[in-house]
Amino acid sequence: MSGPGSHDFVVRDSRTVYDGAILALRLDQVQMPGGRVAEREVVEHHGAVAVVALDDAGRVAMVRQYRHPIGRRLLELPAGLLDGGPDEDPLDAARRELAEEVDLAADSWRVLADLALSPGFTDEALRVYLAQSLHALNPAERHDEEADMAVEWVVLDEAVTRVMAGEIVNATAVAGILAASAAITNGLALRDPSADWIDQPTALQSRKHGDA
């Protein structure tokens, strides 16, 4: 038996038990250390992007959006799924979401953080960008939950305070706000928007487009 950290978790069998619009549920039979084969449930999900749009006054553009699974509105960053096909560029998706949700464009883009949102059961991952040098666009047409979204501008330091007070709980917003605050406070160098994204999900996109 090999030592800890060296086992190759080979998938012995795999089957899809649910294939929906935004996720699929896959059952994998995985070889464990010691020889046992264990079943692992994997939720395949589209990747996603989110944007910390920071204006010259140090304010972040946020949206208050109804989230049905928890039954209330949350204060969040502009964000959306990478559901435009396998070749969709995450930066293009981020630009689209910024325009569609808060009617903004940005001249400066950098990567703040890459997140594996719940790697114990899903491949869902998200890239958070920092967008600056903002300018306004004509209002976009919005539908369903997005038609009810309200835009709120929150000073970055106040957003951090609201995270720590439990008032901002969306995981993406928490990570993006704290990352932006750390980067700006400490003068950290951020990655180019085209930087490699190791954990960007591909399984669901391949399935939807007939490549799986």
From TrEMBL:
Domain of life: Bacteria
Biological process according to GO: nucleoside phosphate metabolic process; ribose phosphate metabolic process
GO cellular component: cytosol
Coiled coil: none
Keywords: Hydrolase
GO molecular function: hydrolase activity
Domain (Nudix hydrolase): residue spans on this chain: 44-176
Statement: the UniProt record of this protein carries the keyword Hydrolase: yes
Annotated Pfam families: NUDIX
Protein name per its UniProtKB record: ADP-ribose pyrophosphatase
Organism: Gordonia amarae NBRC 15530
Gene name of this polypeptide: nudF
